[in-house]
Queue: 2 jobs
Job 1
Amino acid sequence: MNNFKEAFEKTRISGNIAARALDEVARIMKPGIKTEEIDNLCYEFINDHGAYSAPLFYRGYPKSCCTSTNHIVCHGIPSNKVLKEGDIINVDVTALKDGWHGDTSRTFEIGEVSVKAKNLVKTTYEAMMKAIKIVRDGVYFGDIGSTIQNHVEAQGFSVVQDFCGHGIGKSFHEEPNVLHYGEKGTGEKVKTGMIFTIEPMINLGNHETKTLNDGWTAVTKDKSLSAQFEHTIGVTSDSCEIFTLSKK
Ligand code: MF3
Ligand code: CO
Ligand code: CO
């Protein structure tokens, strides 16, 4: 059997830095802030904790985190865009420390948001947590996907298919692809020691996305709202450890 102790120990550290960066982000979230202020905070916090922001210069990506508002599905680039009451925004951070990555995101509500938006955000979070709760040695990746898909479609929302979760470790993105939809009992089996993300992107409208001319920003084709949450987890014989859990 692989010795995964070191991988777990190191990912626990990078994951904790990423989670705490988001705790700091939560404190500054309010109408009037610019998404580049969120980026600066993430850059500083992660640096101050002896880590790198893995997104910065990753395949040419220009910033330290992703800020995806409203109909942006993922990979929104921080800018001088000002947040306003009623927006939802996903902030996705990845810390690289001592050679290992920890990747996590949350969707925040700016002031009071619509009932629909609230339900979308809540359902997305529930879907991720429901999937995490079934993970242990021997389940199928299809079990993870179907758990998310069933929960989300019961609310009339749809699962994005163009982006998925991923193995993570010494590289930011590695095998396997972790689909957020699928059939129970299909695909590869989850094995003890595996480290991967679960990061469902859920749309209020249909699942289709397109990428803008900046080469990064992915949006819903129908301009409907989209929410996302992400944790990095490590599989054990009878459950999994969430490396990016907030202690708050
Ligand atoms: N953090 C994202 C993920 O969950 C990836 C961002 S890549 C970037 O996989 F280059 F856009 F930052
Ligand atoms: Co990820
Ligand atoms: Co991420």
Note: Residues 103, 166, 197, 199, 230 surround cobalt (II) ion (ligand 2) (CB under 6 Å).
Job 2
Amino acid sequence: MKPKIILAIETSCDDTSIAAVKCSGSLTNPKFEVLKNIVSSQIKIHRPFGGVVPNLAKREHIKNLPKILKLISKDFDVKKIDYIAVTVGPGLEPALWTGISFAQELAAKLKKPLVGVNHMEGHLYSNWLAPAKNFKNLFPAISIVVSGGHTMLLLMQSAVKWKKLGETIDDAAGEAFDKVARMLELPYPGGPEIEKAALRGNSVAVKFPRPLLSSPKNPQKNYDFSFSGLKTSVLYYIRDHFNEKDLRNFKDDIAASFQQAVIDVLTQKTLSAAKQFKTKSVMLSGGVSANKTLREIMRHAVEQSGKKFFAPSFEFNTDNAAMIAAAAYFDLLQKKPSLKFEADSNLTI
Ligand code: KG4
Ligand code: ZN
């Protein structure tokens, strides 16, 4: 296939993003050149509410999309694109619809074909976006996707063939970060705040549980995750040990101990799957992969076991449209029929 320029639109949660990506190469050796990737964050709008308010997200997306497109058009001729890609799910329904409607209008105006993309596949393929990565000899691979809404472990036989080994049975890892941050009176989104506090704290100060981790006593391989109990342990710990005044002195230790529990679970399950299935590499992605402590601990463990480790460059960890363009290109290479242009908040991978 000749190189294609894909203009992608992402509005599944609280980031409005449009990207233009030049995509070329085959399924085994694809290349992505990110020409533009603009992300407009709505953190300030949602912060007073302690989380994302779907209708406010919708309002902001409607406001931001034309502004971002205008910015992109300044130094890039949008008439030169080959395809328009848009996230159709999973995500917040009102937010998803704004991107879909915008993409449909643009596709009609520019007379370009439209591709519907799964947001989780976007995260999965965000690992292919970084420049200068050697993607030869990667498979089989374990891919762990950790975001605000999902935590899943995949066994990938190739870039487009995979099997889900496990996923969260309750809260996603990012959701647990956000909820624990709220308990510690840290602002939304909680992940980066917990990471900052954890750098000042002691990660062995409190021994929080490591849910669903196999142990010599319980050796059964289980690749599902559960973070709800861990979150409740933090809540009870705070309730039982401190009054409000004291909490200030222990926030950092609680944040570090909680973060370590999440990292231990994610890293050990990933490594155990990589060993069981004798994979050549491990790929980490999703918003939580922005956590440097997690990346470094997982990288170290994976490399120690003789496997390659990949995580996206920082601009592609949290939601962005460049990863949606990459996922669309993989769909096009496979000649997959496009997903329906209807918001599907529960779309699975
Ligand atoms: O992938 P993403 O941008 O959106 C979803 O698809 O959900 O992930 C957002 C999640 C939030 O829960 C946020 O707290 C978490 O990723 N996150 C982090 C960090 N940066 C973002 N979690 C831990 N450490 C971080 N540095
Ligand atoms: Zn996401």
Note: The longest strand covers residues 30-41.
